[in-house]
Description:
The model has no long low-confidence stretch (mean pLDDT 91). The chain has helices at residues 10-15, 19-25, 48-52, 89-103, and strands at 5-9, 29-32, 58-61, 63-65, 72-74, 81-84, 109-112, 127-131. The longest helix has 15 residues, at 89-103. The chain is globular. The chain has 4 helices and 8 strands. Strand 4 and strand 5 (72-74) form a beta hairpin.
Amino acid sequence: MAGDTQYVNMHDAYDDLAEDTKQKIEGLKAVHVYQSKYSPRLLGKISEESRRNLPPPGIHPLARTHPENGRKALFLNPVRMESIVGMEDKQALALIDELMRHATQKKYEYRHRWRHGDWVLWDNRSVMHQANPDYDMAQRRYLYRLMLKGETPV
C-alpha cells in the first residue's frame, strides 16, 4: 500500500526566498474560496445545502507570521486561492505558481509512508500537505481528522 502524505516546511521555504521576492510579496493578500476556479484539481461534490453554507471568501497574506514562534511562512493553497488583491489574475497565477514551485522542492519535504496505527500531527500554520492517491482505491482506508479553530493569519 502506498498513499503517502507529503508535507513541506513553509518556514524554510519562506526563509530561502530571494530578498526581492520577499519584498514583492510583503503585504500581498490572496482571496481564499472553497474551490478556486483555477484549482489544479477538483474537490469532491458537495450538496446544495453545504454549498449555501460555505463561509465567505477569506483574505489572507501570502506570507504569514506564526503567532507562537514569530517566524514567517508562505501561506499557499492552490486549490483555494482565487486571486491576489490588486493583481490581474494572470499575474497572480504566475506568482502563485512561482511560489508553489519554490515551496514544493524536495529539500523542504517530509514524506510519510503510512503504516497501520500511525498518527501524524502537523501545524497548518507552518506546513502544506498533500495526500497521494497512489494506492488501490478498492482498499478501505480510514482517516480521522481533528481541526482546531485558530486565529486569522497575519
